[in-house]
Amino acid sequence: MKSICVFCGANFNGDPVLKQAVEQLAQVMVAKDISLIYGGGKVGVMGLLADAFLSKGGKAIGIIPQFLIDKEVGHTGLTQLHIVENMHQRKQMMNDLCDGIIMLPGGFGTLEEFFEVLTWLQLGLHSHPVGVLNVNGFYDHLLLQMDVMVEQRFLKQTNRDLVLTSADAIELVNLMENIDIKPDEVWFRDRNLT
């Protein structure tokens, strides 16, 4: 992998464990010469992550819509900053520029981005590994909900297994580098998840 897109919050809750996880993720990616692709913000977890990358000599590439630049939340010290027209173009460009995707703690926007690219993977629109850095159990309930979706037959186990998860950034990146992506694309043909 040459680049990983990281979805994360525009807020930071002050959690030192999260800050340490951000630093560890930046460290492992920079050590492996993997560039950061992210939402281009200077605020919240986004800003912490970009600054961690830059301070370690890594390459940080942001993609941000013009209306967020107008609100002065764009990071001006990045290796590269792409300004797009809207949120849809932002997500598409982030996906196009990356070789893998990681979700850190965040809010609705983070979840929306994650589930859209996960859906694209399930539909066969890309083949990037998708990972959740589950810092301090932040996503435990969300991951359990995915298991309920399998149990209730709204999601195939094969596709659930595409969501790689670890609380450790080093382990997660290693998992992503070694997964063989095989989504079950036939779910829509037989319309039967059993």
Overall description:
The structure is a single chain. The chain is built from nine helices and seven strands, in the order βαβαβαβαβαβααβαα. It has helices at residues 16-31, 44-55, 66-70, 87-97, 108-122, 140-151, 157-160, 169-178, 187-190, and strands spanning 3-7, 35-38, 60-65, 80-84, 101-103, 130-133, 163-166. The protein has a seven-stranded parallel β-sheet with strand order 4-3-2-1-5-6-7, sandwiched between helices. β5, α5 and β6 form a beta-alpha-beta unit. The longest helix is centred in the first third of the chain and has 16 residues, at 16-31. The protein is globular.
What's the structural blueprint in terms of helices and strands?
Layout: E1 3-7, H1 16-31, E2 35-38, H2 44-55, E3 60-65, H3 66-70, E4 80-84, H4 87-97, E5 101-103, H5 108-122, E6 130-133, H6 140-151, H7 157-160, E7 163-166, H8 169-178, H9 187-190
Parallel strand pairs: 1-2, 1-5, 2-3, 3-4, 5-6, 6-7
